[in-house]
Each structure stands twice: as structure tokens, then as C-alpha cells.
TrEMBL record:
GO molecular function: fatty acyl-CoA hydrolase activity
Keywords of the record: Hydrolase
Protein name (record): Dienelactone hydrolase
Organism encoding this protein: Halogeometricum borinquense
Biological process (GO), any one: fatty acid metabolic process
InterPro entries, A to Z: AB_hydrolase_fold, Acyl-CoA_thioEstase_long-chain, BAAT_C, TAT_signal, Thio_Ohase/aa_AcTrfase, Thio_Ohase/BAAT_N
Length: 466
């Protein structure tokens, strides 16, 4: 039996000869401008051959003998130049056709019918686990179809990460971040994109929004350098007010309301800022919390994540139950994953009703539509439960704007925009060395969540900022 890693290594070498049961010569296909490549053994058609990252493409092989085993491979490179690859083998239909939109693979890096399975199931060909970071601008995806040791065809799809004509602008002193927008005079509606506890600006989501005609500002609100707090603790909400003032002062940015898109702690911040400032016109919150939690400090001190007018915003402390400590102890020599979800669940159980009430974000004050996106298998914190709490509060207060909660049971914490590799997003490196922090979900579940939630997020921003 041929291992998945062996196939990926052969993809790296640019050949599947010997893996599909035939070692004959390889016929060279003829390519046409319409995305079709063919030779005497069949035809490969891919359409379109230039797409934005969140746009799908179709792939079909035709003209082969019924029952032919067809192997399709995909190759691309990430921002660091590392090669990623995937593959799937199919049995051609009675009409001599393989269509990835309707056919399940017999074997490969994914198992069920999934039109973009060749994308989300990609892995680094060096065998190491990694999170895929797309190159900015256009990057090439090479798709190859072969059968009986012969290449049927090869096509390249150019995938654009951000608008084809991109304008960027760095923020002024005292405000860290970058504005991404399409080139041109605009004016474009503004969105602030808020990162999570990783502390790095959410450039990817900002570029994706820019491709949809938004002026997306990705600020950094904690971490080095000195312009912002060095840890996620007592971050002033007024920092976002400065971000709004600068964003809407740009000549190409539409004045008035802006949207907030946040992930994890950034989603908590988005909901809190939306309930605090009247300039927020829409909120999209990935892996959200409608409760303010303790900040993340180097020394373990319990303090709020945020301040307003110089005062800490009321918060609920996290807890470290024995089960989490035991998981850390057990995982360190074995390299296992640790779920931090119990630290929040037990924190809620231990907090008084009064403390929870004080720390609950008054989301009913948000002057616009609200969308929550969560995974039922979130292992970092119970975002699906938190999302339901937000929805319940909004409905109890008869929120006059659309409220939507997109939940995917097989997804975890790392839900984002669609059609990207998700194989490295179920866990991330964590101290101590050798352990990982569980994010939850499966690669396929995350891919489904990305696809289902992204149009809802775009609709929320469009509805609140139109």
C-alpha cells in the first residue's frame, strides 16, 4: 500500500510514475487558453483559471475509458516558499468522466465529496505540520491529472490574495497597523480587523476584505513595540477610537460607521467595542465570547483584558482545574495537545452570578447587525456556548437588526475565510516545549465552516455599512 507521505514526496519530485501502476512514457498534453489541457488519453478542464482566494474553481477530466483510475494532484507554495501538495484518485464514470464537484475520491488526502478538497487537504511536502500563509498578491496552484502513468493534462490557477490592485498605508505614530484597500479614489467602507491572543495583526482577513471593496485596517493592540501594552491585559478601548478616527480620516475611506471583524479575544473586543462606541455599524465575531475574561499576563496576574476611561472593565477570572494541569504534565514528555476549554467552563462555574452579570457585554447596545461564527468542537474555549449566550441576550432585548449564529459541529476555534489549507489549524505550538494547544475540529469541518460562514460575514458587513 502506498503511503500518503510517499505520494506527497513524489508530487514534490513532479512525478507520479510508479505510483499509479504504469511506468510507460508520459504524453505531453496540449494546453489551451480556456483552461483545457488534453492529449490522446483524455482532457483536463479547469475553470476559471484566475480567481480570488475565496472563489472556487471547477475541475473535470473527460474522454478517458470508463473505470480508468485517474489521479489528480495539486501543488502550491506558501509565503515562505515551502511547497504544499494534495492528491486524490478517482474511478472514471461510465461516461469516462471525473468531476470533483460530484465524485468522492477512492483514496487521497481527503475522503468525501468536496469540490475544494484538493485545497483544504493540502500539507507541506516536507512532512512538517504548519499553518499555511498565502503569498500576498497572486500565487499559482498547479493541477495535474494522470492515468496509467501518463499525464492527461496540467493547468495553473492563479489565486489572488487581496485585490489585484492593492493600496496599503501604515498607521501614524501611536497607532500600530496597516490599512489595506483597493487602489482608486473610493470612498470605500471601513472595517477594523481585530486579531486574537497571538498578538499579530490579522493581515489575511484584511486582505480578503480589501478584495471585496473594503478599506480594512488591521491594527495591533498589544505586544512589542512600546506603542501598545506588551501583554493582553488592560488594553484601553480608546485605542480603537484612535483607530477609527485615523481610518475615517483617510480620503479614500467612507466617513461614518465602520464594521468590526474579530477573532477569539479579538471577537470579544469587537463585541465590547460595538457595545461601547456609536460609530460601529456591524460586528462579525469568529469564536466569540460575550463575556469579558481575564487578560493573559506573563506572571499569571488576574486583571481585566480591557480598560475604559482608565478603569478595568469587569471580568470573569479563568480557572486552572486539576484536569488541565494533569494534561500539561502528561503531554510534556509525550508531545500531546492540551485543551484550555475547561479553564473557561470552570471559571464560569466558580464565578458568582453578580460577577458574571457585571462582565457580560451589553451587546444589545450594538447599533447594527451581529454575526457570530463558532465551532462545536472548539477546544480553546466554548465559543458555541458563548455565541448562544450572545444570541439569547440580543433576542431578549429585541435587537432591531439581523442576528445570525453560524455553528459547525465538526469545526474548532480557527474558523476563517474559505478555500485555504486547514490541516494545520486543529492545534498550535504551546509552552512548554513539545506540547501543543488544542484548537479542535477536523480539517474538513473547518473547511466547511469557512465556506458556510464567509458569505454570512460579508452580508453582515454589507448590510450594516451600506
Amino acid at each position: 500500500m502506498i503511503s500518503r507521505r510517499s505520494v506527497l514526496q513524489c508530487i514534490t519530485a513532479g512525478s507520479l510514475v510508479g505510483l499509479v501502476g504504469h511506468t510507460g512514457s508520459t504524453a505531453q498534453p496540449e494546453s489551451t487558453a480556456d483552461g483545457t489541457a488534453q492529449n490522446a488519453t483524455g482532457k483536463l478542464r479547469v475553470s476559471p483559471t484566475s480567481v480570488h482566494y475565496d472563489e472556487p474553481f471547477t475541475l473535470m477530466v473527460s474522454g478517458v475509458a470508463p473505470g480508468t483510475v485517474v489521479t489528480i494532484t495539486a501543488r502550491t507554495f506558501d509565503r515562505e516558499g515551502r511547497q504544499w501538495a494534495s492528491f486524490a484518485t478517482f474511478t472514471a464514470s461510465s461516461k469516462g468522466v471525473v468531476d470533483i464537484e460530484t465524485h468522492a475520491p477512492d483514496a487521497g488526502t481527503y475522503e468525501t465529496v468536496s469540490p475544494m478538497g484538493l485545497i483544504w487537504s493540502m500539507r507541506p511536502t516536507d512532512g512538517e505540520s504548519s499553518i499555511y500563509a498565502p503569498p500576498e498578491g497572486g500565487s499559482d496552484l498547479t493541477l495535474t491529472a494522470s492515468a496509467d502513468g501518463r499525464q492527461i493534462g496540467q493547468q495553473t490557477v492563479t489565486r489572488w490574495f487581496g485585490p489585484k490592485k492593492l493600496h496599503t498605508e501604515a498607521s501614524p505614530d501611536g497607532l500600530l497597523g496597516t490599512l489595506f484597500r483597493p487602489s482608486g479614489d473610493g470612498p470605500y467602507p471601513g472595517v477594523m480587523v481585530l486579531h486574537g491572543s497571538g498578538g499579530q495583526p490579522a493581515v489575511g482577513s484584511a486582505l480578503m476584505l480589501a478584495a471585496h471593496g473594503y478599506a480594512a485596517f488591521a491594527p495591533q493592540y498589544f505586544g512589542p513595540p512600546d506603542a501598545v501594552p506588551d501583554q493582553l491585559a488592560e488594553v484601553p478601548l480608546e485605542y480603537l477610537q484612535r483607530g477609527y478616527d485615523w481610518l475615517t480620516s483617510r480620503p479614500a475611506v467612507r466617513d461614518g460607521s465602520v464594521g468590526l471583524l474579530g477573532t477569539s479575544k479579538g471577537a470579544e473586543l469587537a463585541l465590547l467595542a460595538g457595545a461601547t462606541f456609536d460609530w460601529v455599524g456591524a460586528v462579525a465575531a469568529y469564536a466569540p465570547s460575550g463575556i469579558v475574561w481575564a487578560g493573559l499576563t506573563y506572571g499569571g496576574e488576574m486583571t481585566s483584558s480591557w480598560t475604559l476611561d482608565g478603569d478595568p472593565v469587569p471580568f470573569v477570572p479563568t480557572a486552572f482545574p486539576p484536569s488541565v494541569i494533569a494534561d500539561y504534565v502528561a503531554s510534556w514528555p509525550l508531545g500531546g495537545s492540551v485543551s484550555l476549554r475547561p479553564t473557561y467552563e470552570v471559571g464560569l462555574e466558580q464565578a458568582s452570578t453578580e460577577r458574571i452579570s457585571e462582565a457580560t457585554i451589553p451587546v444589545e447596545n450594538i447599533d447594527g447587525p451581529v454575526t457570530l461564527v463558532s465551532g462545536g468542537d472548539d477546544r480553546l474555549w466554548p465559543s458555541a456556548t458563548f455565541g448562544r449566550m450572545v444570541v439569547r441576550r440580543l433576542r431578549n432585548h429585541e435587537h432591531p437588526y439581523p442576528v445570525r449564529h453560524v455553528t459547525t459541529e465538526t469545526a474548532g476555534h480557527a474558523i476563517s475565510f474559505p478555500y485555504q489549507p486547514t490541516t494545520g489549524l486543529t492545534a498550535i505550538s504551546s509552552p512548554p516545549p513539545g506540547t501543543t494547544m488544542a484548537l479542535g475540529g477536523s480539517p474538513e469541518g473547518l473547511a466547511r465552516a469557512n465556506k458556510e460562514s464567509w458569505p454570512v460575514v460579508l452580508s453582515t458587513l454589507e448590510g450594516g455599512l451600506s
